[in-house]
Amino acid sequence: MARLTSCFALLLYLVCFAYAQTTPTPVGEMLLVSGIGSGRIENLSFSPDGKSLLVLTNIGFRILDVQSGRVVNSIASYARASSWRWEDSPVAICWSNDGKQIARASREIEIWSPLGKTPERTLPISYEDAPLSDLVWSPSGDQIAARTSQPRIVVIDVRSGRRVLIPEKWEEDGSTVFALKGPSWSPDGRLLAVLVGRIGNSAASESIHIWDMSRLALVRDISLTGLPNSGHGRETEDSMFIQDRPIVAWAPDGKVLAADSGKTGLLLWDARTGKFLRQLGQGNQFLSWSRDGAILHVVADDQVRFINRGDGIATVATQNEDILQGQTVVSADGRYIAAIVDRRRPDEVDLWRAGTKKPFIQIPWTGAIHMENYGVDSDNTRIGMVWPSQVSPNGNQLAVSKDGATEILDSMTGRQAFAPSSPRVWIAWSPSGNLIVVDHAGAGDTRLIRANSGQPISQFAPSGFVAFSPSEDLIASGGAAGVRVLRVNDGTVVETIDDVRRRHFHAASWSPNGRMILLDDFGDDAGSVEPAVFSLTDKALKPAPPGRGRLLWIGPDELVRTTISGGIFTLQSPNRQLAVTIPQTGASELWDLRAGKTAAGPPQAGFSSVWSPDSTRIASMSGPGKIDVWDVAAHRVTETWYAPGAEGATTLLWPEKLTLVENIGGAVRVWRQP
């Protein structure tokens, strides 16, 4: 009976163990706690009635009232279910013909109300199509046509999401499609025009294809070959002339097609017969038709010109040296012109009334910010590694550049804590994140500042590396000119470390008791500079423990080396007893530093990894917006966190709660564990 009971207990243990090994990893969702900055401007679009201007950015969009420039709606984050990746920020947006809806697309299509705060619905896109561009709504509002990444043209039913692919032949008569641009719907919504580029036998050709969408048949092929080259496109190594934003567009009456390939300039064709009608002006870049179809809007020589369709006479609608070709739009009624300018004022949107030379509204895009990399990490866990000091160790503040100047912002509110007086600075945070060393490049001074207020504490001569003592009352500072120990509260030099061998130390790490300093050369395993230890008690510089591995403090004043082979990454736990290393072989190792034993480490460990405050877990970025938490005792991933839409995040912190910081060009977003 005892044996039976023992067998049953063993069986129960095995079942429980097997269940534990197969239990799904709990998945949690991180919360977006702040979004700072308005992003980088990508494109402009007037509403069909000309009363609103849509400004597309890499993180969302804004709708402005044309008369006043007032922001009517601002969307600064993607939808919860969005799968857009940071490198595929939205590249296409368009109004429906009635102006009641907006379609925005890259890796899916979102349908928005102009005043909505969330999309009304999302149309999924197949993997081979994404990201989409050249988005255009059908006149009836039932379909959306777009260019895929292949490149091919896809038509999507707005209600059902059903997808129809235009059957362009990629290879025909020895030629291959290299570009598809457009597309453009006929006013009755029956036909779709596409500008096609082909290459074959070392020659490039262009043509307009017109498709009957009711039967998905190619009904006309209008060749652009043989016409004089009077365009503004640029020839590539493959002799491809189609410009970055070529346009083909139907006149509102459906009788004429305008095509601007970049090679041949602006052409007019009879839409019914395919007969060539007119070639308009050298260097003209076509923008759009007027609402009545009598006028073509173009850009030429930094001017916006209105060309009469009948006689070809051009009238200068506005003239300004800041207008950029390809970043200009005209309202359908021809009353307003908008342009993105950046020659004198970065990311500015200007609005003109047609016929005037000066904009009546200039809208500076001052909200664009960029996180910068400064200094060397000084938290004693990554000795000497060059590390981004974009975010304070406690996650409370961000170092960013805005309009070319450095600012320190509160990461939750975006409010400025302070801005260094010099735009070119070098920054190092204290381990607590409460203090900042700011080295004013070229200004001849280095200052210690309180992070939350910008209040100066002390000032000292410029130096190289900076490392705070554990109590943050001293700083080890130096470089090629030598190493000094300074008092934080007044900048007084309390020790000068003389090295008779004249080694150029570039990094320092304090012992936990604050009595010794390890001096090294960015933790170089190759031994280009032999590390040394300075004792503040003995006032002496002594050799470091011999060997070639990375040196780490594990006790009050005890050093160990992690590995004999070279390593490319070392991350020490807060309690100093463990470390994750990545040797040159690539697979991470978990070190018990006191015992000198190793085991396999987290599979995703790398530069975007961080220890939990209690040293029991390691969080690592394992995919776009995905964080795996690896438990040291269980030796496996025990939980996974997702930050929806945070595919560009690379800075991972764990001061108290797991924190993710996303730097997406012109904006920063912070995600936090609930």
Q: Key features?
A:
disordered N terminus, five-stranded mixed beta sheet, five-stranded antiparallel beta sheet, single chain, 674 residues
What does this structure look like?
The strands form 15 sheets. This protein has a 5-stranded mixed β-sheet, with no helix packed on it. The protein has 674 residues and is mainly beta. The N terminus is likely disordered. 43% of the residues are buried. Helix content is 3%, strand content 46%. It is built from 1 helix and 60 strands. Strand 30 and strand 31 form a beta hairpin.
Secondary-structure map:
Blueprint: H1 2-22, E1 27-29, E2 31-36, E3 41-46, E4 52-57, E5 61-65, E6 71-75, E7 92-95, E8 102-105, E9 108-112, E10 121-124, E11 133-137, E12 143-147, E13 153-157, E14 163-165, E15 171-172, E16 175-185, E17 191-200, E18 203-212, E19 217-223, E20 247-250, E21 256-260, E22 266-270, E23 276-280, E24 285-289, E25 295-300, E26 303-308, E27 314-319, E28 328-330, E29 336-341, E30 348-353, E31 361-364, E32 370-371, E33 397-402, E34 405-410, E35 416-418, E36 425-429, E37 435-440, E38 445-450, E39 456-460, E40 465-468, E41 474-479, E42 482-487, E43 493-497, E44 507-510, E45 516-520, E46 532-535, E47 540-543, E48 551-553, E49 559-561, E50 567-572, E51 578-583, E52 589-592, E53 597-600, E54 609-611, E55 617-623, E56 626-631, E57 636-642, E58 649-653, E59 659-663, E60 668-672
Parallel strand pairs: 1-57
Antiparallel strand pairs: 2-60, 3-4, 4-5, 5-6, 7-8, 8-9, 9-10, 11-12, 12-13, 13-14, 15-16, 16-17, 17-18, 18-19, 20-21, 21-22, 22-23, 24-25, 25-26, 26-27, 28-29, 29-30, 30-31, 32-33, 33-34, 34-35, 36-37, 37-38, 38-39, 40-41, 41-42, 42-43, 44-45, 45-46, 46-47, 48-49, 50-51, 51-52, 52-53, 54-55, ...
